Structure formats: structure tokens, C-alpha cells
Amino acid sequence: MAYKLIFLGSPGAGKGTIAQKLAEHLQIPHISTGDIFRSNIKNRTPLGLQVESITSSGALVPDELTIALVQDRLQQHDASTGYILDGFPRTIPQAVALDNLASIDIAINFVVPQEVVIARLSGRLTCSGCGRGYHKIDFPPKTPNVCDICGNALITRKDDTMEAIQYRLTVYEKETAPLIQYYQEKHILANLNSNQNLENVFMELLQTLQQVNK
Ligand code: AP5
């Protein structure tokens, strides 16, 4: 089934981990603005150089830049019938812009307490090659510091320092949390309990999607 989905929720809520799993399950693209920025930074593109210091600090990239990036990505062939937008929109202007670009089926709000988020982010490891996420304690790789999938080294993201985590949470409350009400008022918001093991989060998500009229 080809849904057009938004994954909302605070940093570390588990959006990226579940988006990857659902994208494989539904065979639709996982469009993560954070991943797109990180890939540009890694490849030293003009966009990467422009956003590197912004993303490392935990601040948001300007709306105009982010909206143009997503607009371009949604026009690509693989996104013609469905996709998961992970980490976009993140501000009201981005949500308004998206309204003009797409008809979203459902916005999934990943709900998890802040202390859990901090524990998740401070233990996160990310593959420097494919971007897959691990956790030092909860989801360690089979071989220490090596990605199970592509064999590249695991790194700690620059914005996973305690200072940047705290800042990202502040930015989330101010800029992104208002989107919960935005999508509630459009009657397309579904809350998902992300404070449970991955299998249960995924199962609850599939049940939620079954209720969407397609
Ligand atoms: P982005 O990459 O989107 O970062 P984020 O929103 O801070 O989200 P995270 O990747 O930190 O969290 P997540 O919810 O995906 O959690 P994950 O699944 O990894 O954005 C990075 C930066 O790019 C932004 O700060 C900004 O600068 C810029 N940017 C991006 N989009 C933008 C936009 N639209 N506008 C402007 N700027 C933008 O899980 C976290 C950890 O928890 C992992 O270790 C994982 O293994 C573990 N975990 C996950 N689920 C579970 C579970 N159920 N149980 C136990 N552990 C779990």
C-alpha cells in the first residue's frame, strides 16, 4: 500500500529507525531531511558546506532551503505514489508549504518521555556509510563499531553531544511541537507510543495504518 506519511516527534523518538523498517516493508522511499543534509555534508557539496555548522549545533536549517529541497525530492519518480517524510515538516511554514505540494494521508506522532530520548541519543551510533542507527546498549552492532549491513565504521553524530541534544529538544518544543495541533485540526494526526520495544512500535504503527482509508 502506498501511503504518503509524515513522521513527527522529538529528536531521538525513533522516527528514523522505524521509517527505515516501514520503507522496506511498504517499498516506498524514506525521505529524511536530516539524512539528506548529512549526505551533502559528507560529500562536501555547496549545500553541505552551507548547513554543516547549523546542523552540528542542533539549530534548524532555514525554511526556504529545506522546502526547496523537499519540493525537488518529491518530484522524483520514486516518490510519485507514496513516501515517508521523516523530520519534515518541522515548522509551521514548512507544513503550510507541504500542504501545497502533497496530500498527506496521516501524520504519525512518535510519543516518548524526554528522559528516554536523552538516553537514546546519548548512546546512539550511526553508520558513516549507510546511515543506519545503532545504540551502544540497546542495539549494539554484531562487531563493535562496525555496521552490520555495509561494514563501514560507526560514528557518534556531531549533534549527539549533550549540549546539542538539549538545544535540539528546546528547538523541538518551540518550532515543531505546534505541528501536533496543526495536524490534529486537519484530522490526520495519530499518536504512536514509541516508548516500547521496536517490534511493538512497528506493530502498533501497522495497526494504525490499517485504519487509514486508501
Ligand atoms: P534529523 O536527522 O531529522 O534529527 P532529529 O529530528 O533530531 O531526529 P533523530 O535522528 O535524532 O531522531 P529519530 O527520531 O530519527 O531517532 P532514531 O530512530 O535515530 O535532523 C538533524 C538536523 O538536520 C536537525 O537538527 C536540523 O539541523 C536539520 N534538519 C533536518 N530536518 C530539518 C527540517 N525539516 N528543517 C530544518 N532543519 C532540519 O533513534 C534514536 C536512538 O534511539 C537510536 O540509537 C535508536 O537505536 C534508538 N531507538 C529507536 N527506537 C527505539 C526503541 N523503540 N527502543 C529503544 N531504542 C530505540
TrEMBL record:
**A GO biological process this protein is involved in?**
AMP salvage
From the record, give the transmembrane residue ranges. Answer: none
Q: Where is this region: LID?
A: 123-160
Domain Adenylate kinase active site lid residues, every copy = 124-159
Q: Where in the cell is it found?
A: Cytoplasm
Query: What Enzyme Commission number(s) apply to this enzyme?
Result: 2.7.4.3
User: Where does this protein hold ATP?
Assistant: G12, A13, G14, K15, G16, T17, R124, Q196
The cross-references to InterPro entries, in alphabetical order and at most eight, read:
Adenyl_kin_sub (IPR006259), Adenylat/UMP-CMP_kin (IPR000850), Adenylat_kinase_CS (IPR033690), Adenylate_kinase_lid-dom (IPR007862), P-loop_NTPase (IPR027417)
SUPFAM superfamilies from the xrefs? Answer: P-loop containing nucleoside triphosphate hydrolases
Please name the pathway: Purine metabolism; AMP biosynthesis via salvage pathway; AMP from ADP: step 1/1
Q: Which residues bind AMP?
A: T33, R38, A59, L60, V61, G87, F88, P89, R90, Q94, R157, R168
What cellular-component terms does GO give this entry? cytoplasm
User: Where on the tree of life does the source sit, at the highest rank?
Assistant: Bacteria
Query: Which reactions appear under catalytic activity for this entry?
Result: AMP + ATP = 2 ADP
Q: Which keywords describe this protein according to UniProt?
A: ATP-binding, Cytoplasm, Kinase, Metal-binding, Nucleotide biosynthesis, Nucleotide-binding, Transferase, Zinc
UniProt: Zn(2+) binding residues: C127, C130, C147, C150
What are this entry's molecular-function GO terms? AMP kinase activity; ATP binding; zinc ion binding
Region annotation (NMP) maps to 32-61
To which protein family does this belong?
Belongs to the adenylate kinase family.
Domain notes per entry = Consists of three domains, a large central CORE domain and two small peripheral domains, NMPbind and LID, which undergo movements during catalysis. The LID domain closes over the site of phosphoryl transfer upon ATP binding. Assembling and dissambling the active center during each catalytic cycle provides an effective means to prevent ATP hydrolysis. Some bacteria have evolved a zinc-coordinating structure that stabilizes the LID domain.
Subunit structure, interactors included: Monomer.
PANTHER family per the UniProt record, alphabetical: NUCLEOTIDE KINASE
NCBIfam families linked: adk (TIGR01351), PRK00279.1-2 (NF001380), PRK00279.1-3 (NF001381)
**What is the purpose of this protein?**
Catalyzes the reversible transfer of the terminal phosphate group between ATP and AMP. Plays an important role in cellular energy homeostasis and in adenine nucleotide metabolism.
Name the UniProt record assigns to this protein: Adenylate kinase
Question: What's the encoding gene here?
Answer: adk
